[in-house]
Amino acid sequence: MGRDASLADRARALFTRLQDEICAEVERLDGGRFREDVWDYRPAGGTGLGGGRTRILADSVLIEKGGVNLSALEGQLSPRIAERLRVAAQPFFATGVSLVLHPRSPMVPTVHLNLRYIELRGAGESERPRAWFGGGSDLTPFYLYEEDAREFHRALSRACEAYEVGAYSRFKQACDEYFYLPHRGEARGIGGIFFDYLARDPDRALELAQGVGRAFLEAWPAIAERRRGETWGEAEREWQLIRRGRYVEFNLIHDRGTLFGLETEGRTESILMSLPPVVRWAYDHRPAEGSREAALLEVLRHPREWVDSARGV
Amino acid sequence: MGRDASLADRARALFTRLQDEICAEVERLDGGRFREDVWDYRPAGGTGLGGGRTRILADSVLIEKGGVNLSALEGQLSPRIAERLRVAAQPFFATGVSLVLHPRSPMVPTVHLNLRYIELRGAGESERPRAWFGGGSDLTPFYLYEEDAREFHRALSRACEAYEVGAYSRFKQACDEYFYLPHRGEARGIGGIFFDYLARDPDRALELAQGVGRAFLEAWPAIAERRRGETWGEAEREWQLIRRGRYVEFNLIHDRGTLFGLETEGRTESILMSLPPVVRWAYDHRPAEGSREAALLEVLRHPREWVDSARGV
Description:
Two copies of one chain form a homodimer. Chain A is an alpha+beta fold. The first copy, chain A, contains nine helices and ten strands.
């Protein structure tokens, strides 16, 4: 799609292509096939247009539950959502691609990617831009492999630095702040990047979105291939299920995309596809001192730098 | 404790006694023993006093995970919590007893009880009373036994009608409205009662709290005894785990007590003891038409009356 097309159309086209590329790559890795549900956006007020295409891979070989969701829809901001965004309630357009993959093996990290473009289509001034890109990607390992964390962050840093010098370190810090559970004193995982309200120079922001999608395709499949053969047993599975509980806590208490989706009456099953397949909550679980589980907690409590920022790679 | 003692002291004494009585009864039913953790309330600001006593029974015979929590503490309302309560940020005192029992058998319903007394201790006017009781109790079956639903509601209605004629039907409706998941279009369970900001005639409100505690002791143990012998298999277990997911969704997205606790920096493990031990999220799960699972959903989507309100019992 050329530069003459509207930004909304170009964003939707990019996200559509990314969904296809990502699903093809995950199917190649896993051997299974995504199930697809095409849906219409139909909020109760009747002011919705458009919809989405949800793809789910469940109970498969590498992936225990994974979803890759595409949406492009028009609706009306509820007063509550408008207040949170600090804009007037008005019509909006939103398109995005979003994925969460929960691997079966506790040695393969859970991964999240979201890229979105939002346009406010009402009249009037606001302290927000009229249109912006947002998104990010973060990695949630159950066992820490420093090599994996570095590889994931390096791929993201290349995409960010192509967008703007210094962007990676800003977006990395925003990610550490965003994917944080105050009541646990823990980050959700080993981070990645997070950005929002990118409005200046939309062509470059679109390229950033494309670059972040490419970074996912470069890093996560390689990490998954490297770790899928590692052995694990009941103890590692237990730890994975307990850590997945933190993922649920983050998504349901804090995640803006989840709450935005639910409050704009998006399709519930597509929004909550991010929740893990099986989860455990154990009262006051504490890993043994010196264990691999404790080593992960240490990193979640004290986020680290994974890229040599002097070199930027 | 006599009527000369402060309301705060009398509420705390009642809740302390209820925790003991309830734990003794659950231990009698289950055969296992609660683990007890005594904790101090220590928010980051350093303005906390008091604490609580959390009792947990896990991986036991009847109970897969259950918690009965007592707390009595003083702190400072955060601006965010104060805004939600629509009062000025100020010191507060809160005491309460709270329980959630997740039985192992899908045939025995999950049950929740919460009773609380809150005092605002700052100066100044507000649209809220300076001190009030709140609470409620609700039942979350995985399979519907109408006899159980009626018994549970009847016990609660007796406690409410002793407090005030017509209270049961108001509190029952408030419960149906409160324990509701808009994004699912489902109630959490078959309801019970919910009340808040009871400030007029505190002696009677304290008696109501006592009556609701007694109603729990009358109804739930009898229901559990009646259903614990019912047979079940993998299919019923799956359904239980999926329905538990809705419990998590409610508690983390909507439950005022959970969010109040987390935002006032209460003890995380005591607040989140309410979360089920094992949970499953399956994409777009739909029970077969005409199945017992579908029959439950029907009641969750269209809450019923369980007590003959003409007779009030």
